[in-house]
Amino acid sequence: MDLLMTILLLLVCLLISNIISHYIPYIPAALIQIAFGIIIALIFRDISLEIETEWFLLLFVAPLLYNDGRHFPREELWSMKAPIFGNAIVLVLLTTIGGGYLIHLIIPEMPLAASFALAAILSPTDPVAVNGIAKRIHIPEKVLNLVRGESLINDASGLVAFNYAVIAVVTGYFSLQEAIFDFTYKFLAGAALGLILGLLITWVRFILRKQGIHDVTFHSLLQIMAPFIIFIITEELLHASGVIAVVVAGIAHSLVHERTDALLAEEQVLTENIWTIVLFVLNGIVFLLLGLNIPTSMRESVENPNIGNWLIIGYVIAIGFIILGIRFVWTYFFSYYEYQRKKFSAPNLKTSLITSLTGVRGAVTMAGVLSIPHIVIGGKDFPERSLILFIAAGVILFTLIAATVILPLLSKGQSVEGETLNLIDLREAKRRILLKAIKKIRDKVTVENEAAAYELMDEYKFMFHQIQPKSASAEQDTSFYQKKITEIRLLALKAERRYILNVKDKSGMDEEVFEAFEKSFDRREEALSKNVRSGTMYLIGRVIREWNRFRGGRKVDEPRLAQLNLGKAIHLRALQAALEFLKNYAENHERAGIVNAVILDYKQSIARLKRPSARFEKSEKQKEELRLMVMDGVRSEIHNMYESGDISREQAKELRRFINHIESITLHEHTE
Predict the structure, then answer these.
(1) How far is CA 360 from the centre of its chain?
(2) At residue 47, what are phi and psi to the nearest 5 degrees?
(3) Is residue 455 domain-shared with residue 535, that is, in the same domain?
(4) Percent of the chain's residues with pLDDT above 90
(5) Can you give the pTM of this predicted structure?
(6) End-to-end CA distance of the chain, in Å?
(7) How far apart are CA 429 and CA 270, in angstroms?
(8) Domain of 654?
(9) What is the mean pLDDT of residues 348-370?
């Protein structure tokens, strides 16, 4: 019961911390959550939630890194492989050795092996806190990708170095050859097993679908469980690095998914929504636990009469500068090396400082340091354990506060809630979300849905080109063009309506079919009148869909089916009548090119209407599935632009209205 109440209390604090972060955006949510954890630990002295390092890695690090692997841009990962692996392995080694010697120099009573252990566990970076800071300031994308990329690997390298340093303290024995061999084995075996297990889980899901198991909830749950399964098997079966395994499995999952049509849109939406909740909870709980453990970690050192509180705080600040200083020196000289070798941009002190400050330490450091044993071989206490815990917790806070305070001063385009510094204009924001939509569709193209995907991309490309920046004269020309093309489309729509009315008056028509025509005409006319950009989408995307409403979700008897087929034939002739009207109109119109653009739209609509029904319905279903994913991704992009300070709250609302308008047009049949 106590454990359940503690978890519920942490979840409540998680929700409150995000509300506070919304109103005080210049303070990262991670710092607020750490503060909440400290407050809980001070108020409720009996609350204790200590998690062993292995459990912490399984419950928190594994799913977080697996998700990072799924979404990390692989082009960036490959193009930045040298600095990423340099930071994740070489920098960790330099921090462990160089930092260990300097720590021992500052605190002589701390044995050299224990100093190495402290420096090693302070080497892994925590990108979650950096992401929170990056929501309100403009950190260069290259720096963010570097931090995210190195964090995929340096947890494993830092923990291996830390474990060997601790073993050296406990047993008094250390072998550099064994350490190098062990790290190489853990890394390579973990990567290999991660790749195999990632592909195996994908293959299992494919086989299950072939057996008729299409339950999206089942497949989504299997995806969520994947990192836990992979981590446990890798750690227990081969004693390799489960951290590396889940990263590689996440990347493999993403690569396989992009090249197959195995993942349904409904499953994709459900899975991403579940991941959103899981990541929200895990990221928040990690920092709450960090804060919860800080008072207990520091209490023994604070109560120690042999060391002054100001002295120990001085140790924290000095070691914080050492850790960040080593990172700064490495970053600058590696940038110089890359500049000399590949003619990259010259090293920059400001960029190197930003890169250094983004190396925030976090939850992995705290989880590792809490695993330090109390007693070594021989029955003696682990040397300076309480001091190591205090310094580790202090350095975590130091790096977080330093990044929070200094990064906004270094980063251009700082933007906080209520300010409008360097906000992009609304037109640029619309272009950005439309590009996001096109990219998301392109990522989901398969052999099966290729036609539907490219058709949907054309709709978004049309909207994108309509809001491209132009000169003042071009703007006037575009406005005139849109006005004229709308007038012509409305005339063609009236020609369709006249034909339908003539058929009803002369030959009679089923009332329900006639009402469907009338509703379709009304909506298309409303869209053309209110929003020029939506005209083509209505004409190309909506002109045939009314007939699907009658067929979806219910059986139709043969007389009814015959009536619907007759209605479809009438609709086809109505479009042809409008096409004839346009051809005659073009002969007497001074701007025949504008009329010809509308003629081309009608020809495309007629060709689609003549398409076999089964093929058409399959294509429409594929388009709707893609639309679901696009709308979900575009809304996330709007949220990300707002969180990163690129747009204001009012702009975000306007963009949501823009997307809602598109959705109301393209998905109208689903809302009736």
Answers:
(1) 20
(2) -75, 125
(3) yes
(4) 12
(5) 0.63
(6) 48
(7) 27
(8) 426-671
(9) 85
